[in-house]
Amino acid sequence: MAGNDLSLARKAMVDGQIAVSSVVEPRLLSALLTIPREVFVPEHRAALAYSDAQHDIGQGRKLASPVEFARIAQLAAIEPADRVLDVACGTGYSSAVLSKIAASVVAYEIDKDLAIIAVHNLCRIGATNASVLTREQAALDAGPYDVIVFEGAIGNVQDTYLQRLASGGRLVAVIGAGRTGVATVWTSTTDGVVSRTHFNAMLPPIMSNDAPEEFVF
């Protein structure tokens, strides 16, 4: 598919899929219109990059559908000055979008092959405020963070992540796999960390099995 056709497909994705799914944050919609999603999927899938579907990206991992990713990203309520930890960034698409609406992004990816691809892709689109790390402790030590986003369904959230939230910081994750997944936000307050569930969401599991019990790197 030609570049102009892909640009039209990107606009159709935002206007016809995402904006009609209660995603209204202007800066996020602008970022989604800007980032070439086709760069972050396997080359043979480029023509389908803007369909509302998950994409296999290798190593047993999948890229979330555009609508589900956008809904989760909006839930994080990212501000221009925020520092973001993007957990399980895969090939870097989520980090690329978040880099457009945050001050900086640490993209954490345990799979070294995917991390190499993410570095290449982020450099390719000029996301100079995003860095990729492959060690969990290094990613945590780079905090505290205003926002932490998990780019896949998990069984639960470890305290080590909640402890890296700055005051007022938010952690967003989908707990549970498949149709049972629930988008949840943890917020760091003066009285401790409080959580609130929001909506059902179908993110691909971070781990390769269908029902991850716990996210452990």
Strand order of the largest sheet: 5-4-3-6-7-8-9
- Which percent range fits the helix content? 25-40%
Beta-strand proportion:
25-35%
Per CATH, the class reads Alpha Beta
Count of structural domains: 1
Let me know the CATH homologous superfamily. Vaccinia Virus protein VP39
Low-confidence stretches: 208-217
Silhouette: globular
CATH T-level topology: Rossmann fold
Alpha-carbon distance between the termini? 38 Å
What is the quaternary state of this protein? single chain
CATH architecture: 3-Layer(aba) Sandwich
Quickly give the structural class: alpha/beta
Number of E strands: 9
Structure in a nutshell:
This protein has 217 residues and is α/β, with parallel strands linked by helices.
